[in-house]
Amino acid sequence: MSMLDEILKFNDSFVEYKMYEPYITTKYPDKRIVILSCMDTRLVELLPKAMNLRNGDVKIVKSAGALVAHPFGSIMRSLLVAVYALQADEVYVIGHYDCGMSSVDPIALIDEMKARGITEETLNIVNYSGVDLKGWLRGFGDVATSVTKSCDVIRNHPLMVPDIPVHGLIIDPSSGKLDLIVDGNKPNGALNKPITERAE
To answer: Which residues contribute to the annotated binding site for Zn(2+)?
Structure first.
């Protein structure tokens, strides 16, 4: 049985036995916040539990590394929709220690693309169309710096509510401990003491 078949089989039972009932809520976040977090598997349940969040409390937007890579990309659009259409009035950017994006090698990633069937011609078309493929795929070196940069992009975006708090945090994926990097309640999101990358 394929993974898809397993999922659909379980879903039939989920619906038949009304297992969805404890999760019924509205599309508006009860705690009126939107979170941008990493897509890391360790955070799927850990992050909401570490923040005392339940279904219906928040909007969660996920991207590799909790990055806002482009000020007019889909991540920023999702945050703006959460604020203007879905009643979020605080933004949380939450990166994590031991993030895969901190070690992404764009050249190795491109080599893997080639190994899996992406042709050199396709890569050239992407590059010639104005996309700096290596830059686009590049990760980051320091999670605190990355979180701070994403907070800055959001806070200074020309379409964002000027006085909305934009907070930056880093979660430890082994314990759930949150370190505050940017306090959006302070002027210009004044930084706390610098956080160094934790040893694994």
So the answer is: 38, 40, 96, 99
